[in-house]
Amino acid sequence: MADRAEYARKGIARGRSLVVMQYADGIVFVGENPSRALHKFSEIYDRIGFAAAGKYNEYENLRIGGVRYADLRGYTYDRDDVTARGLANVYAQTLGTIFSSAGEKPYEVELVVAEVGSSPEGDQIYRLPHDGSIVDEHGSVAVGGNAEQIGSFLDQRHRDGMSLAEALKLAVQALSRDTNGSEREIPAERLEVAVLDRTRPQSRKFKRIVGRQLARLLAAREPATAPTDAVGDEAEGPEGSEE
Hints:
By secondary structure, the chain is α+β, with helices and mostly antiparallel strands. The protein has helices at 2-13, 56-76, 84-100, 147-157, 164-175, 211-219, 227-232, and strands at residues 18-23, 26-32, 41-45, 48-54, 109-115, 124-128, 135-137, 140-143, 191-197, 206-209. The chain starts with a helix and ends in an 11-residue tail after the last helix. It is globular, with a radius of gyration of 17 Å. The chain contains seven helices and ten strands. A hairpin with a 2-residue loop joins strand 1 and strand 2. It has a five-stranded antiparallel beta sheet. The chain has a five-stranded antiparallel beta sheet with strand order 3-4-5-6-7. One of its GO terms (biological process) is proteasomal protein catabolic process. GO terms for molecular function: threonine-type endopeptidase activity. This is Proteasome subunit alpha. InterPro entries: Ntn_hydrolases_N, Proteasome_alpha, Proteasome_alpha-type, Proteasome_asu_bac, Proteasome_sua/b.
């Protein structure tokens, strides 16, 4: 079992790190991803988002299974019965079964399932390592190759009530730090950013932040005084798209 755990950890460490973080109006997902077709972040259901690091084909299978579970449960019972906790339990059972099975290799993935509530107190973030355990996270969480160092950096600097621009800049700053302590620049075109925005009037709260909106958020000099205008003017802009 120790060998299987080490195998999975090494596979996850080869992937790029990503950050999931609470901000005043919801939850933001930030990661370095040069691909525009293979997404690390996706919508699972109305208020639930999915993030993953590791082998794409493995976490894509898990994502599709989560969407099917959510659709079936929401159709059979009620849309409010689809929760991040329930989805995390399903993923935990799947990952745990695969990890303990001698007939197949463990999945080289680490997942984050997040649900935005009607208030910051109702937000839920669950991290699921390769062995199927569930970790209830608060504030911020990092997974992937350099997760430990990035997580420590975020723990020291993240605070409640941050604007989207502030949270995005902090996440990019954390992702830019190399293992030797130096920093590098990550251009906007290499970033994948999405949010679960509780202020959206639609029932579906997931939205991608791309194009000019992303550039303006990264370039904002005074995010503490202008986050409402920066986000509100473009909440339904043409650059954002839903899944």
